[in-house]
From TrEMBL, chain A:
UniProt superkingdom: Bacteria
Transmembrane portions of the chain: 23-45, 83-104, 116-137, 157-177, 182-199, 211-230, 242-262, 274-294
InterPro entries registered for this protein in UniProt: MetI-like, MetI-like_sf
Topology relative to the membrane: Multi-pass membrane protein
Residues in ABC transmembrane type-1 domain copies: 79-293
Species of the source: Harryflintia acetispora
Annotated compartments: Cell membrane
SUPFAM superfamilies: MetI-like
Listed name of the protein: Carbohydrate ABC transporter membrane protein 1 (CUT1 family)
TrEMBL record, chain B:
Organism: Harryflintia acetispora
SUPFAM superfamilies given in the database record: MetI-like
Listed GO biological process terms: transmembrane transport
Name of protein: Carbohydrate ABC transporter membrane protein 2 (CUT1 family)
Compartments (UniProt record): Cell membrane
Topology relative to the membrane: Multi-pass membrane protein
Signal peptide, first to last residue: none
Residue ranges of domain ABC transmembrane type-1 in the record: 82-272
InterPro entries tied to this protein: BP-dep_ABC_trans_perm, MetI-like, MetI-like_sf
Key words, A-Z: Cell membrane, Membrane, Sugar transport, Transmembrane, Transmembrane helix, Transport
TrEMBL record, chain C:
Protein name: Carbohydrate ABC transporter substrate-binding protein (CUT1 family)
Source organism, top-level taxon: Bacteria
Keyword rRNA-binding listed: no
PANTHER family, A to Z: ARABINOSE-BINDING PROTEIN-RELATED (PTHR43649), DIACETYLCHITOBIOSE BINDING PROTEIN DASA (PTHR43649:SF12)
Low complexity compositional bias, start-end: 40-58
Signal in keyword set: yes
Keywords, alphabetical: Signal
Length: 302, 287, 453
């Protein structure tokens, strides 16, 4: 289409014009690489080494760190937990978030206010969110127990964080509650650019709600939803504070997500090389997932 | 007649849905507010009283006025940390938006060599868990004597806010038809001018949302702040963890600080609603 | 063309960020192709930057967690007092314990000299000493200190015959109970054995006096390891024999301890099932609300909070026993988890750092600390101090129990060991595996990571 000017007409135009895109991205690249390039190179280097602090030496160990992680039963368990956590949070948050955004995109009284307070969960510092949910799920005095008891849904207080699966689901819920507003906020902004006229025309054509959504709304918000899916995946894979405070990875390592596991190996066991190797494995997983998302979204376009 | 009934039903359904959403969002938050104005004994009543019997604003007073005698000494640093957070967040938001928009425009509208690779590389830097790069980054900051410095922290924050801003803004700009700028360019507008005059106003809703996004993620950042600040540059999320001892978190004080910390982003969001709505009425385009 | 621009950009940003860190970049940039051990950046770093502080010789930076009983800014106030007395300047950085731990690890691994006095936890001793992160204090510590402080505390922070830390927080745990509830149930004495504790609890539960016998912090955190060590000690067991061999599956005390707690949680229902998710703070809350009758490993602060009407429903009902609960009524063990101050090797100001430590561990300071925030002294004679005993009559019980205090094992691989114990303990306590199978698995996992002697 029209995205073809940029780098093709070389002659007769000033330097600024010819290299406009490069100049536009230069400040960003400068900042991002300026901060991150050395640490990234260093940690890649580290992932092939073992540090011995007592003799102050780095020992080159080749791929040992990368191989070791697949023999580590605790690590393998944390992978499956992380995948479960990531898949469920990303899907739920996107479906719920887009749904809520569609509702809040309708005209009703107090819409601005409701949209404003939608941000509340997301505006809470992660640390506070985790402490708050720990308090809500408290086995002895938590408000969640009190509420369910009052509604007659349970007949005695339950230990919600007391079994691995239940604790993991509580953690999921805390994460979904906090992060869905992010999806809502960005989706509402994408929806705002769709003119009401289009919907009107569709209605006159007699298409139903779902058809309208699929043919008109979805294609327009798709670029944003793709980005939401990617960013959400990145963050879900890196969930740390919630685990650290809410469950400590327990009970019986039932909620020990990968980043928490890496943190433990790095900061407690001082296995810096191993921690770096696991981090890069996590990045690769993330990269592959992103690649799949992009392929899936792109293929649907046809 | 039938049509009218249908309309009423539709409206009722809508309001019921909205109410449900509001309750879902507010209920846990409300409990946090209630916790912050209760005494410990009241909170641990079984069966629980949902309305506190001895409500008190003492925690808020102590925290905001820094009267530390009755609370921890962390409380007296609250305003200082809030100021640090505000400075860092505002700078990060402003710079990342200004710089990020240019880059996202380039990625959205131009074709140039290594575009896809660069674009993916920018995101890949964010797929590496901060935990992997914290030690080398700390070494650099240590040698450059940049630890506990809010400007250094600002630059570090930019390195993770900027990539997301670029990606998100590209999503919004992609959604705007190129015909708009093309017609402007035919009218004699330069490329950049047409971008600033035509595209950006249409993208104002996305712009507002991305600004809130940048604000919130830098406002709430914890891990870097924990490692790179200690006193002078300490930010709010780090300070809040100090309401915990090694025995556990003080729920009441943490809730109090959480309520205060969550207000600035929400106020910002409420103000920005205006822009989102303005965008809706003025900048709507035909897909 | 564009390639050139890209490479210029890259070079520019490398330059920008690398200007002040040549030491680091040259190190991280050289790949160790030969497999030969290299000097890590930490060492070079600490040597590379010793300037810039000669003039500020009397300014030190201190990184410590908050004292859990210090709600009045006592440490801050005392630090300012030290400043005016000595003329030295002190930057005191307080963070939560977990944050301090992370922070110190980052700092040490990066080889920095940002701090002159640091937190030194009892579980870090072998690790920090072996890694050469801190300096021995023998030349600084006076004989009066070495003989006057509680011997357990000196021992705990000594390694290979050298002293590395001076305690600032004597965190020792005691057996407390709710005297009023026990009396209502018809018991005049607190239980001596775990079996008695179970019987008394059953009676109180039947009479509706308490919900559970006790609650403890068995959540997946260090606290669970601490508490299981205590129960094992109280049954006369240990995880290691005197030669350092693992005895998890062979020591009957270990098995008895795990059986008691697992049954207490799952079948006898005398232990609060919420324990699996509770931190220490929650344990104290439950005890202070009167929902449990015993606090088997209470810290001194609980006594204070139990007598405060805004945090407690059992004002005046709590008492400290003269002994701790045990398997046989004879063995006595309470847990001690002290925290010390240490001087990092990379500090540029050993003398001023020591001056601060000396002040913050002096007998006068120790007494003020005890009087103002109720913290346990580190000087032996203060346990008999008439002023303190007048203010805290219940301390006589502490004194008797503290005679048998015991710490966690000093292992170089402690963190990994504790992690295995933690995860496998949780499986047992949740009833996922039987006690025998669980302990067997625990020992196997431990053997996998135990360094070969």
């Amino acid at each position: 289409m029209s995205k073809n000017q940029g780098g093709q007409r070389h002659d007769g135009r000033p330097f600024l014009d010819r290299h406009l895109p490069q100049l536009l991205i230069a400040p960003s690249i400068l900042i991002i690489l300026g901060v991150l390039i050395l640490p990234i190179l260093y940690s890649i280097y580290l992932s092939f080494h073992e540090i011995n602090f007592s003799s102050n030496t780095y020992q080159l160990v080749g791929l040992k760190n990368y191989i070791e992680m697949f023999q580590d039963t605790y690590y393998l368990k944390s992978i499956s937990l992380t995948v479960y956590f990531t898949v469920i949070t990303v899907f739920t948050e996107i479906f719920m978030g887009v749904g809520i955004a569609l509702v809040l995109n309708q005209k009703f009284k107090g819409r601005g206010f409701v949209r404003g307070i939608m941000i509340l969960p997301w505006a809470l510092p992660t640390v506070v969110n985790a402490v708050m949910w720990k308090w809500i799920f408290n086995a002895n005095y938590g408000v969640f127990n009190a509420l369910l008891l009052k509604l007659g849904l349970i007949d005695s207080y339950q230990v919600w964080l007391g079994t691995p699966l239940s604790a993991l689901n509580c953690m999921l819920f805390a994460n979904i509650w906090k992060e869905t507003p992010y999806v809502v906020l960005l989706t509402i902004a994408a929806l705002a650019n769709i003119s009401p006229d289009i919907y009107e025309a569709a209605r006159v054509d007699g298409s139903n709600v779902f058809h309208t959504f699929r043919t008109i709304t979805l294609p327009l918000i798709k670029p944003v939803v793709l980005i939401l899916a990617i960013t959400k995946t990145i963050w879900a894979l890196q969930t740390f504070d919630l685990v650290f405070i809410l469950t400590g990875g327990g009970p019986a390592s039932g909620t020990e997500l990968m980043t928490f596991f890496i943190h433990k190996n790095t900061f407690k066991f001082l296995k810096f090389g191993y921690g770096s190797a696991m981090s890069y494995m996590l990045s690769m997983v993330c990269f592959v997932l992103t690649f799949i998302y992009i392929k899936v979204f792109a293929s649907k376009e046809d | 007649m039938n049509k009218k009934l249908k309309h009423v039903l539709k409206r009722t359904g809508l309001y019921a849905l909205v109410l449900l959403i509001v309750v879902y969002v507010l209920a846990p938050y409300l409990w946090m507010v209630i916790s912050s104005i209760s005494t410990k004994v009241d909170l641990m009543e079984v069966p629980l009283k949902f309305i506190p019997r001895h409500p008190t604003l003492q925690n808020y007073k102590d925290m905001l006025l820094g009267t530390s005698n009755s609370t921890t000494d962390a409380a007296s640093q609250f305003m200082h940390a809030m100021k640090n957070s505000a400075i860092v967040t505002v700078c990060v938001t402003a710079v990342s938006m200004a710089v990020g928009i240019l880059a996202s425009y380039a990625f959205s509208r131009f074709r140039f060599r290594f575009k896809q690779q660069t674009f993916m590389a920018i995101l890949f830097t964010q797929m590496i868990p901060p935990i992997a790069i914290i030690i080398p980054l700390y070494m650099i900051m240590l040698r450059a004597k940049l630890l506990d410095n809010i400007w250094a922290l600002t630059v570090v924050y930019l390195s993770f806010v900027l990539p997301f801003v670029i990606w998100i803004m590209k999503g919004y700009i992609d959604g705007i038809p190129t015909e708009l700028e093309e017609s402007a360019m035919i009218d004699g507008c330069g490329r950049l001018r047409s971008f600033f005059l035509i595209v950006l106003p249409v993208a104002s809703t996305g712009l507002a949302a991305t600004t809130i996004f940048a604000f919130i993620i830098s406002w709430n950042e914890f891990f870097y702040a924990l490692n790179f600040t200690s006193l002078a540059a300490k930010t709010l999320p780090v300070l809040i963890t100090e309401f915990s001892s090694k025995y556990g978190a003080d729920y009441i004080l943490t809730c109090t600080s959480g309520v205060i910390a969550s207000l600035p982003p929400v106020l910002l969001a409420l103000i920005f609603q205006k822009y989102i709505i303005a965008g809706l009425t003025s900048g709507a385009v035909k897909g | 063309m564009k390639k050139r621009i890209l490479s210029i950009l890259l070079a520019a940003c490398m330059l920008a960020s690398a200007s002040s860190l040549t030491a680091c970049s040259s190190k991280s940039g050289t790949p160790a192709a030969s497999g030969e051990p290299k000097t890590p950046a930490s060492e070079a770093g600490s040597e590379a930057a010793p300037e810039a502080s000669s003039e500020g010789a009397s300014k030190i930076t201190v990184l410590m967690p908050k004292h859990e009983m210090d709600n009045i800014g006592f440490m801050e106030k005392e630090t300012r007092g030290y400043e005016s007395e000595s003329g030295n300047q002190v930057e005191l950085i307080n963070m939560s314990w977990e944050n301090v731990a992370d922070r110190i690890t980052t700092e040490m691994a990066a080889g920095g000299g940002s701090y002159d006095v640091i937190e030194f936890d009892n579980s870090w001793v072998p690790k920090f000493v072996t890694n050469n992160w801190i300096i021995p204090l023998d030349d600084y510590a006076t004989d009066e200190m070495k003989t006057g402080m509680l011997p357990g505390l000196i021992d705990k922070f000594s390694y290979d015959g050298k002293l590395y830390g001076i305690t600032w927080n004597n965190d020792t745990r005691f057996f407390m109970y709710n005297k009023a509830k026990l009396e209502q149930a018809g018991f005049s004495e607190p239980p001596k054995t775990w079996e008695e504790l179970k019987e008394q609890t059953k009676v109180m539960q039947e009479k509706g006096l308490t919900k559970f016998g006790y609650s403890d912090s068995y959540m997946q955190a260090q606290s669970c390891v601490n508490e299981m060590f205590f129960v094992v000690y109280s049954f006369g067991g240990d995880f290691f024999d005197s030669e350092g061999n693992l005895t998890i599956t062979t020591d009957p005390g270990v098995k008895a301890a795990y059986e008691f707690v697992a049954n207490g949680l799952n079948t006898d229902k005398i232990v609060d099932p919420g324990s699996m998710t509770s931190d220490y703070e929650t344990v104290a809350n439950i005890f202070n609300m009167g929902d449990t009758a015993f606090c088997v490993q209470a810290w001194p602060g609980i006594y204070q909070s139990s007598n405060d009407e805004s945090t407690s429903k059992v004002v005046g009902e709590i008492a400290v026993a003269d002994y701790s609960v045990s398997g046989d009524g004879q063995t006595q063990a309470v847990l001690t988890l002290p925290e010390a101050m240490a001087i990092p090797k990379a500090s540029k100001n050993y003398d001023a750092a020591w001056d601060y430590i000396k002040y913050m561990s002096s007998k006068e300071f120790d007494k003020r600390k005890a009087e103002e925030i109720g913290a346990l002294p580190i000087w032996s004679e203060l346990f008999n101090d008439p002023d303190l005993l007048a203010k805290y009559p219940h301390w006589s019980g502490f004194g008797k129990q503290a005679a048998n205090s015991k710490g966690l094992p000093s292992l170089l691989w402690y963190d990994e060991f504790a992690n295995v114990v933690l995860v496998e303990s949780q499986k047992i306590l949740l009833g996922q595996v039987s006690v025998d199978d669980g302990l067997k698995e625990m020992e196997e996992q431990c053997k996998k990571i135990q360094p070969q002697a």
